[in-house]
Amino acid sequence: MEIKGTAIKSINSFVYDNFRDKYQEWYNMLSEKAKDIMQNSLSNKWYPIQEGAVEPTHKIAELFYGGDSKKAAFESGKYSAQVALHGIYKLYVKFSSPGHVVDRGSRILPAYYKPSKIIQIQRENQLVRYEMTNCVGIDEVVEYRIAGWMHKALEISGCNTANVQIKESITSHGRTIFEATWT
Length: 183
Known about the structure:
By secondary structure, this protein is α+β, with helices and mostly antiparallel strands. It has helices spanning 5-18, 23-29, 32-40, 49-64, 69-84, 87-95, 98-103, 105-112, 140-156, 170-173; strands at residues 2-4, 46-48, 113-114, 117-124, 127-133, 162-168, 176-182. It contains 10 helices and 7 strands. The strands form 2 sheets. Strands 4-5-7-6 form a 4-stranded antiparallel β-sheet. A 3-stranded antiparallel β-sheet has the order 2-1-3.
């Protein structure tokens, strides 16, 4: 599985913007390949998911979140959405209904992760479920990163309370089920 350089840049920026005084310590913990990807990634290129996202996220967890990789991934994903949904995109999301925003969710994932497929399997008032498949080599931290991204996108769209849960993980069920609810 691969990750787009844009997402890698957001991981690097997340650490720098939130933990600037320990950025170098985090960077030094990375393998040589991960360091090279962090320093030289291009927004429009694709990189191995392990060194581009999984390893850096585990190091974020180790250094800043007491080893909680799920929390590190979720927070990093929220940050990524905040960065991605700025300017004209932020206005689009902010002035769209939460339902409209989640209806567009299946178009976003393949822009950041390949191969991947996500489809909306349930849509009710203030609830949506997505099924993600075709993610060979995915790691749980990627699922939580995506969940964090969804959560922040719902917040930007004006939800008072947004909740995104992983109901099934691809690592144990062969698919990931994301459930998002909001008020």
